[in-house]
Amino acid sequence: MHPILVDGPAVEPIGLADMRAFLRADDDSEDELIAGLVRAARRIVEASSRRILVASRWRLVLDRWPTGRIVHLPLSPLLVVERIAIATSAGQIELPAAAFTQDDFSDPPRILIGPEAPDPVDAPVGIAIDLVAGFGTSSDSVPEPLRLAVKLLVARWFENRGDVAGEQTLPPEALALVAPFRRARL
After folding, report:
1. Does the predicted TM-score (pTM) go above 0.90?
2. 65 and 95 together in one domain
């Protein structure tokens, strides 16, 4: 089960003005570069922590229900399960919200599927789950240590443009900020 990004975040965890102030960049001549670095740094921090920082829409596809009808999600934190669609012999149906329970307090978050949910037809991608994952919809909802890790990474890239690659993905100070939020691998 590999998550498919449907719609990325509406905002980044660090606004352009905030990042420019952190970098002490006085003019707007490098705004495009800074915005690109913030997007890239967010993705690196998300990959390192295995958490989505700002609310994004995702789709998970399954061939069949897992054992025990418990779907362990590879995305965290879970905000909402928007829709579960099942391919049946009568066509595609949408599972009513009463037929599943969203358990976003578990780590990893999970969806508990009720016995009334039909099994999908024997075909690839019999189940599609649309969900929203992230700490929230605004940059303020992202925990401050993760926001600071993004800032530190952007600052390192901004100050060391064109230098030889080969360093760690995250500098040690950013790794220390991300460590308490890091999810174990499934």
Report:
1. no
2. yes
